[in-house]
Amino acid sequence: MKTGFDIRADLQHLEFIYGAGVFGPKTEKRKLDDIRPSLSDPSADGPEVVYAVAMDVGKEKDREDLLQRNLLYGAMIFQGGVVGEEPVRSQGHVHAVSPSCNASTPEVYEIWSGEAYIYMQESAEDHPGRCFAVHAGAGGVVIVPPGWAHCTINASVKEAMLFGAWCVRDYGFDYRDVRARRGVAFFPKVRDGGIAFVHNPEYADGRLEIREARGYPEFGLKPGVPIYSQYEENRALFSFVTNPQSVQAVWDNFQP
User: Which residue in 4, 21, 50, 125 has its CB near the most CB atoms, within 10 A?
Assistant: First the structure.
């Protein structure tokens, strides 16, 4: 995995192994029962543990700077397999308003291994607005804007998917509107070895665009360079994560 620091995965136990000079916690396990309220079939069978999360990982030499910047790096392992007709995925949610910046905040994903769809929609209310499913393989970067409902999907039923993500330290998740509509506006379904997206009738009709991951020159990101390495090269690069209002014009016209 091209991560920018020494981290490996124990897929049997859904744990990360941290190398010399790298800090990180034991993973928190998310169980199938935790995500049932957002599934197309809440009674579906699947793996007991669907994914594992290690929030606050990085190099020891960067720990104090990350604290001062209120910047947090998380690492995740998503199981392969299926949950009923769906691939393994996270619950849909919106990033709650963070007290540090008085705003909902974005998230910057980087796929390390496997392939993913990062699904996002402008609103979790009856009319979801623009809806996108952005496909990314290893090395792909996807940014979710502030205030958008989103979920992370393992696009392969045959293998695990691993990724890292930048977010604000005082993050919070708001599940209320998504759970009230039994999930996001489009459910991913496993069809003929691939993923198809099916409209959730709890929402007004929407239109889904499926895209491939792209570069983000508007944020100064470099293609092909791990996002942790890019932080090391320019420690202020991800200030748009912790202070999203500083690039409000970009969010107003954002294209995933």
Answer: 50
